[in-house]
Design brief:
By secondary structure, the protein is of the alpha/beta class. The chain has helices at 30-36, 74-78, 182-189, 225-237, 260-269, 314-326; strands at 7-13, 19-25, 54-64, 81-83, 87-96, 109-122, 125-132, 145-149, 156-160, 170-176, 196-203, 216-221, 245-251, 273-279, 288-289, 307-312, 334-338. The strands form three sheets. The protein has a six-stranded antiparallel β-sheet with strand order 9-8-11-6-7-10.
């Protein structure tokens, strides 16, 4: 029999107020304990790389497993953010989850799709349009991602949808080309219309929060624009008064910018949308020189209850969190999805 010193009482509270108390054994991570108890917890990789099982430590002590690496930055950990798949409780503690208990009830499914289009839209970005095959279906929340198996291999890559659930069965992805990348090689050399592609999803705790009327701030680096497009289109299609949206989108060079015509069109469709473009180097008439984080300033007078969505490389995420908090945004209203290069 386990002693009280070998078991920690962990409380998980969902955004809708649903609360569950778990008995987590020493050496067991919180995610495994929650799933074993039947809780609807979002998760995917279970290795600390995808951030799907993100939660905020609100009381007590709980740390990531010693020696384990994760996608969280040191500043995010300092703010109390934890990945439940890596977290071991050190006595009684509590966590808050940034989604309703109903969200986790949507289980990922494996589906077949076929290629509708493959189009290079920037120097290092390809637009891949898929369509779910007859008999296959999935749904998702704007901002979530799917896993894509590279045809002819067992290699899996993760990408956020740029389209909305209303666009199904069509799914659109923006994919960065990487030298020597397995997906990049397929896209550049072999991908063709009607190719069959296996996908799985949805995954991720990064998605548009329902019924929030406070101003929305979106900071996107590179292909981190994809989930922002899904969110913006969902906001536009939602009945009622729309929240103002400030989108800051940046790339390293002008040649890396893409979907600019779409952003211009959405500016006409959604009068409350303001888009700012940035490039790290080079010159572009429509873009400022610098990073997309610095494009948001104190002159924007963002209220403390503004909601921010960040998607890009870890360095950008860390800088954006610190910058927005310095401008007065609540850390609990800042949501992020890290994009990391998958390598070969």
């Amino acid at each position: 029999m386990l002693t009280s010193a070998e078991v920690s009482e962990v409380t998980l509270t969902f955004a809708d107020g649903a609360e569950h108390v778990l008995a987590v054994e020493a050496g067991q991570n919180v995610l495994d304990a929650g799933l074993a108890a039947g809780l609807p917890l979002l998760h995917q990789c279970r290795s600390g790389s995808c951030s799907s099982c993100l939660a905020r430590l609100t009381s007590g002590h709980a740390e990531h497993r010693a020696g384990a690496s994760s996608s969280l930055t040191p500043s995010e950990k300092a703010e109390g953010l934890r990945l439940l798949c890596m977290t071991e409780a050190q006595g009684g503690c509590s966590f808050s989850l940034g989604y309703d208990s109903k969200v986790g009830e949507t289980k990922p499914v494996v589906a077949q799709s076929f290629v509708n289009a493959v189009e290079r839209v920037a120097a290092d970005v390809v637009r891949l349009e898929l369509e779910l095959a007859e008999g296959s279906w999935m749904t998702f929340r704007p901002g979530q991602f799917i896993n894509v198996t590279v045809p002819g291999t067992d290699v899996v890559r993760s990408y956020s949808m740029a389209t909305t659930p209303a666009d199904l069965p069509r799914i659109e992805l923006f994919i960065r080309l990487l030298p020597g990348g397995v997906m990049s090689d397929w896209l550049e050399n072999r991908a063709a219309v009607d190719d069959v592609v296996t996908i799985e999803g949805p995954f991720g705790a990064f998605f548009l929060k329902d019924k929030v009327k406070a101003p929305h701030v979106m900071i996107a680096g590179g292909t981190g624009l994809a989930p922002m497009l899904s969110m913006i289109d969902t906001i536009r299609a939602t009945p009622g008064k729309k929240p103002p949206v400030l989108l800051s989108f940046g790339c390293q060079t002008p040649e890396g910018l893409f979907a600019l015509d779409r952003l211009e069109l959405r500016g006409h469709w959604l009068p409350g949308l303001e888009t700012r473009l940035s490039v790290d180097r080079g010159t572009c008439e429509s873009a400022r020189t610098g990073n997309p984080v610095a494009a948001i300033t104190a002159d924007d007078a963002l209220p403390p209850d503004a909601v921010a969505y960040l998607c890009g490389p870890p360095g950008m995420i860390a800088a954006a969190r610190a910058h927005l908090e310095a401008l007065g945004l609540s850390s609990e209203n800042i949501f992020a999805e890290h994009f990391t290069a998958s390598g070969a």
